[in-house]
Structure formats: C-alpha cells, structure tokens
Amino acid sequence: MSHRRIPKRKAILAGAGAVGIAAAAVLLPNANASQSGSEDERTAPRKLSAASAADLLQQLGRQLGESYGGAYYDASKQQLIVNIVGDDNDVEIEVKRAGAVARSVQNSFSTLKSATRTLSSEATVPGTAWAIDPRNNQILVTADRTVTGERWNTVESAVESLGDGVARIQKSKGEFKPLLEGGDAIFSNGGARCSLGFNVTTQDGQSGFLTAGHCTAASEQWSEQQGGQPVATAQESVFPGEGDFALVTYDDPNTEAPSAVDLGDGRALEIGQAADAAVGQEVFRMGSTTGLNGGQVTGLNATVNYAEGTVTGLIQTNVCAEPGDSGGALFTRDGNAIGLTSGGSGDCTSGGETFFQPVTTALEAVGAQIG
Fold it and tell me: Is CATH 3.30.300.50 the classification given to domain 109-171?
C-alpha cells in the first residue's frame, strides 16, 4: 500500500467525556474444556463472542482449503457459522469439533473472491459497490440511484456472467459518496467538517488520531471549531485506492488524547484495542452529525466505486450515517475499535448502506497503535 505524504503541520484534541459507560460483560468460551462426554456433547456449537468467533475462524479457515465457503457470526445464537462446499465428512467433523456450526453451500470462498476480481475488471462503474455476503453465500452487488441506462446494463451483464447463484444485484435509493461535512467534530481550514475516529500513539511517541483519508484530501490543518485555530496536521493519507484513512498528529506535544469514544451527554466508552470485524457482528458508530447509531456488519473486503475513485478493503454495514460523520468511530459494545466511517448512501431517517475503513489495516499502514 502506498501513501500520499502530506507536509507536517498541526492537529486536534479528541474531547471525550469523563464518565465511562458500562460495557456489556462477555463470557469467552473455554478453549480447553474437558473432552469427556459423548461425541454429540463434544461437537455441540460453542457460544462465542464476535471477537472469539473471528479468532476461531482464523484457525479454521487455513485448514479447510477449497471446502471453505465463507463464514459469519450469528449474534442471536452467539455461534460461528462456517459454510462448507462438497460432502467431505472429515471437514464437517473438524468444523463441529472446533465448536462452529457447519452449513452446506454452493460456492467456495475462492470462487467468490475470483468473481469479485471479475467485477473489478468489468463493472467498475461509479455508484456501485460489492462485498461477499456469506449468509447468502453470494456476492452482493449494490448500485445507487445514479446507475442507470448503459451503466446499469454493464453492471447487470457482469453479474449475469458470473453464473447462477454467484452474485445478486440490488438497487439503492441513495447515492454512494464520502460523508464529508465521527466522535467529535473536526474542521478543516477550508471549512469542511468531518469526525475524529480514534486517538492513537505513533511509532515515535506522538499523540494523534485516525480519520478518513478523503477528509484530509480536502485540507492538511484541522481545528476543534469552525474557523478556529488549527491544532492538528495530517501526516499520511490514503484515498482513493487501498483504503480511506489518514493519520493526523497534534501540534502540542502535551495534548491529552484519551483512548475513548465520546458518546455524548457526558458519556464515553474506553477503547482498549483494535479488532477485525465479523459479518453479523453488532457494532456502533459515533459521528459529529448524527451521534450514536448501531447496526450490524453485513460484508467484508467491500469495494466501493465513488465518483472520486475506487476504494477497496472496506467493511460494509447497515449502520446509518450522514455528511459530517466521515472519519468517525465504528466500535463494539466492549470497547474494540473496528472502523472509520468512509461513505455510503441514505441517511438516519430512511437507512442505507455504509462503508468503513478497517482500523487494524490503518494502524498497520501508518505504524500507530491504540492507546
């Protein structure tokens, strides 16, 4: 991944309330449970948190090979559902013994990944997006209201070329665009408004924060108030391309930068670490325009074709967002940093689709850490 280097200047304070909210207690399963009992007892699905389900999937995914057809988290049952292609009984037993639920499907994960590459070469039309939907074992292709006529025909033809049951296409009522206008509001010297994502510490010990890359593409200097004195400066930014994220550092080395998300009304949630998203996972978004909203992760490794360019590797959700929420924090109830608001369609009245930059990827790229 390459970065567009931005000259150093100045950055901004994340104002988080002093009062924390109580995070939901999560009982993690005991990976070393006794192996006594019947085979049915040993292969019964385990109750998992979304984070522990993601860990389990990392272990399983490497072992299943071409039989693997994707996976998702069933939040209502607290179970990991693993899609399996074919009738290899050994693979099914392996999945069940790991504590997951085995589910027979048509398409392998490698088939779906190959199909996304075909879409990238044949259907990169502004106003479209696609992501693997493991719950339906398909690629979900979404076209916004601007995709009509020949452009719609191009996308529809590309979807049909993938074969029966590989992908489906749906129409969005809104328009895909970066939500430039989070956590706390931040303002550029050009008047643009975005949201602060998560405070971080850089490799050289500086305090800073992550926000959306399309925000810093509009301006290098940022302040806490519209028209205010700049207090932070963008250092690295990616947009469009392999992500939508930026690192901004505070000018004042004594700036207090708590590892927390401001939830409004004097409340804050401590953020302990960054974590990868899981399809089906419950998540919350904080933005300076619409405040606190929740929903579910619906897709991973999403590609979005904004008018400004194509962005890959995003998280897709059904959490609402509006202009000004760009860069804001996506997180879990128990304080894991998941994503940064990139863009989407719709609003917080009618709903819509929204896309987020994974925090883990952004941290690795800029060499920073949470806390």
Answer: yes
> Residue 5, exposed/middle/buried by CB under 10 A (0-12, 13-18, 19+)?
exposed
Helix (H) or strand (E) holding 145: none
Q: Is 214 a catalytic residue?
A: yes
| Rounded-to-integer distance, Cα 288 and Cα 292, Å | 9
Instruction: Give the mean model confidence (pLDDT) for residues 179-198.
Output: 72
The reply to whether 345 belongs to the active site is no
Given the residues 184, 244, 276, 325, the one annotated as active site: 244
Catalytic option among 214, 262, 276, 325: 214
* Fold of the 178-370 domain: Thrombin, subunit H (2.40.10)
* Catalytic member of 172, 326, 342, 345: 326
The pTM assigned to this predicted structure is 0.82
Average pLDDT (93-109) is 95
Q: Pick 44-105's CATH classification: 3.40.50, 2.40.128, 3.30.300, 1.20.144.
A: 3.30.300
* Active-site residue flag, 195: no
Tens-place pLDDT, residues 132-184: 999 999 999 999 999 999 999 999 999 999 999 999 999 998 899 876 433 45
